[in-house]
Amino acid sequence: MAVVFITNAMLTQWSDQGKVRLDDTTLTLLQENRTVKLKPAVRFTKLIDEGTPDPNKLIGKVKTKEQLVEMAAEHYMDSVILGDVGYQVVEGFLGDLSPPKKAEVPAKKPAPAPVTVDKPPTINPETLQLGTPDKASGTDLEKEAEELSKLFLTTVRDS
Questions:
Q1: pLDDT tens, 101-154?
Q2: Cα–Cα distances in Å, from 64 out to 40, 46, 51, 103?
Q3: Torsion of CA 104, 107, 113, 118, to 10 degrees
Q4: How far is Cα 68 from Cα 39, in angstroms, rounded to an integer?
């Protein structure tokens, strides 16, 4: 099962475009007839005090709300404080991609020629590293979100 990080902005955009439906903690991808179980999470994008090193090595990683509590981190909106270190984060959700729902079997037709498709990589939220977070601007973060969105949709379609 593939694990993906989806930002709140992506969910809003997809919902506005009629691509998804959100029911409690289940996201339904309407065109693909797939579901994603969601857990609230944050992606660490940069240190609030950019001139210091990251002693916790969290930049670029994704943590669920439960993991933040276990770490004794304080989370408020787009910030997380762990000990004496402050981070800027992007709020969103971790999603576990379900297998596609079985469609009704149509009348027998000749089998199509085999197609070889490379599977996209599975994202491990513990080691997710994107871009250059120390120099990330709003535009860089939007580009990263767009890249994640494309990877997510590719994963959905090819799984």
A1: 555 445 566 666 665 555 544 555 554 444 444 444 555 656 665 666 666 666
A2: 6, 17, 26, 33
A3: 0
A4: 13
Specify the DSSP class assigned to residue 91.
E
Exposure string of 3-30, with b = 16+ CB inside 10 Å and e = fewer, is bbbbbeebbeebeeeeebeeeeeebebe
Contact 92, 4 (CB under 8 A): no
Local structure of 136: helix, strand or coil: coil
pLDDT band at 45 (very low <50, low <70, confident <90, very high): very high
Q: What angle do CA 159, 38, 4 make, to 5 degrees?
A: 45
pTM of the predicted protein model = 0.62
